[in-house]
Amino acid sequence: xxxxxxxxxxxxxxxxxxxxxxxxxxxxxxxxxxxxxxxxxxxxxxxxxxxxxxxxxxxxxxxxxxxxxxxxxxxxxxxxxxxxxxxxxxxxxxxxxxxxxxxxxxxxxxxxxxxxxxxxxxxxxxxxxxxxxxxxxxxxxxxxxxxxxxxxxxxxxxxxxxxxxxxxxxxxxxxxxxxxxxxxxxxxxxxxxxxxxxxxxxxxxxxxxxxxxxxxxxxxxxxxxxxxxxxxxxxxxxxxxxxxxxxxxxxxxxxxxxxxxxxxxxxxxxxxxxxxxxxxxxxxxxxxxxxxxxxxxxxxxxxxxxxxxxxxxxxxxxxxxxxxxxxxxxxxxxxxxxxxxxxxxxxxxxxxxxxxxxxxxxxxxxxxxxxxxxxxxxxxxxxxxxxxxxxxxxxxxxxxxxxxxxxxxxxxxxxxxxxxxxxxxxxxxxxxxxxxxxxxxxxxxxxxxxxxxxxxxxxxxxxxx
Length: 465
Prior knowledge:
Elements: E1 10-13, E2 19-23, H1 35-44, H2 53-61, E3 69-73, E4 84-87, E5 98-99, E6 105-106, E7 115-116, E8 121-126, E9 134-135, E10 141-142, E11 154-156, E12 158-160, E13 166-169, E14 173-178, E15 181-185, E16 187-190, E17 201-203, E18 206-209, E19 218-221, E20 225-227, E21 235-238, E22 242-244, E23 248-258, E24 262-264, E25 266-274, E26 278-279, E27 282-290, E28 294-296, E29 302-310, E30 314-316, E31 318-319, E32 327-331, H3 334-372, H4 380-412, E33 418-424, E34 428-432, E35 435-438, E36 443-450, E37 455-459
Parallel strand pairs: 11-15, 16-18, 17-19, 18-20, 19-21, 20-22, 21-23, 22-24, 23-25, 24-26, 25-27, 26-28, 27-29, 28-30, 29-31, 29-32, 30-33, 32-34
Antiparallel strand pairs: 1-2, 2-3, 4-8, 5-6, 7-14, 8-13, 9-10, 12-13, 14-15, 33-36, 34-35, 36-37
Helix pairs in contact: 3-4
């Protein structure tokens, strides 16, 4: 009689050791599998964790052969979550007015500042949640990713409560995110009109005027300026954005200067210098220099008269009028920027050469001091060189910063176009660097762009946001 061969269970463990499968080959008649045999085989393969006792029992009792079934399953790790801040204020608003269905622009929709009051909750911290480690079928620890705590909020104008997760404003003012910092800044608010009899306003922070601004009033803010009414022939200067919901009647005496963007219903007879973008309905007989882009895309968006420069380009519903009023449009950096850039680069080169000579002179004093054993610290010649070095170094830093800004202007001006969504009238003059194009005939829906030797035209492709 032939000796019966005892079959062995076939065990397969997944590559991550999180699952183990077993197949029982059909045994020869008269043989079978025992629980102890299977236990020994699993132990030999190192399987110690997550064993499915019921599954093994069912396979033995049910004579389940030639089918690979899951018999052990590890415990998967549960990753934790990082701590995070829930901000109780709007951290991202674009400051742009909404375009209404009828084509007009709603300047009251502009979100200029986010106001808070002392004691108002501005942020709540949700602590990190720890992860839960897992275990493989072989008893190997599978580490979970544990949540990381965030650093306490940085900034000024707020307090952290005793629970160490709640932050409240410590003053009334405007709240904003500056990179990874929260800052609550003071706001100077005028409930009515800003009148000449009450004097000028000069404020470190934001200014909000809920009425009109009379002629002759000067308003300066290191932050933003928001005027709900009409600004007359006044002077406005801001370190950030300017919003004029009622527009400006400049009377050839008004000036507006800002390092940020400008949003206004209209400007008439006003001098404007804007380092950001400018959006309005109408510019009439204004002198404008805008380092960004000018957009006049409302139903009545137009430029009539004046000189308007937009370094990053201009989009308008119409330019000029049927009276053929002379309207000069300049886009691109312009000849002046490139000329100034060349002058400043040459000046920087000369200053660096001068500083190199000064360093040589100072080094000679050091050598003489070592050779002769005499101190030249108070020598008038050395003192004079040091004074010149300090002055030239400061001048060099200032000039390098100006060159940096000029290069940014030159780079941002590349590809600047004039896009006219509807009519452009005779009397309009388009300038792009040294090139000029005077309109002789009315045109509609046209875009002007720079070619090497002339200003080209093509159908307007600009859309309205």
